[in-house]
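Give me the fold.
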Amino acid sequence: MIAVVLAAGEGTRLLPVTRGRPKALLEVGGRSILVHCLEALATLEPDRIVVVVGRRKEQIASAVGGHFAGIPIDYAEQPEASGSADAILAAAAHLGAAEEIVVMNGDNVFAADLRPVLLVHRAEGHAATLLVERLSPERAVQGICRLGAAGRVVGLTEHPSEAERQTGVVSAGFYVFSSRILDACRRVAPSANGEREISEAINLLIEEGHPVGASGLDGWRVNVNRAEDLEVAERKLGGGGQLP
């Protein structure tokens, strides 16, 4: 199993705190967001971790190094912000013949056990298994998951309508894939803004009859996109994970 962290974001919505450093190196609770991600992934004992970075590869590589908790780390470059599916393809050269690929968004701070997602994926023989969480419709603004029988995912909507947001079930930025995901990412058409998204690659798997499952988040996560998200994550870490 190889793990991939998508950490190429520049963090423009976090300016000015990201001036001079990438979002992945912003600190929460005394550790960078990227280190929080690596700590969560290390519990899964991957053979290797690939960190997908943007134009500040040297800065991130210098801060993290070539190993974490004894696990080798490689770095792959995604020079342009061309979407999460494209980011996975940027890591493809480092994946070899891996049959199991774990992917984590590099702007999440987790306090959750991710191993159940991996166990569900293996037990059910899914092509993909998503970590999902339930949010209020006001907060469910991206990555809505539509669930069918037996908890199978029957579709994802990256930018949901008001009606679609009412379910409140969203992708929580952690995935376990079979190697099929690479071919699906290659076949995703760019969106109107030129990006190829992982949600559309997963939709391709679903349309072609490959089983896609979901596992609920037991714990909490904060997706860090704005300055107030950093504050929320700090408070949650400092308060034992209680809501702010």
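The radius of gyration is 17 Å.
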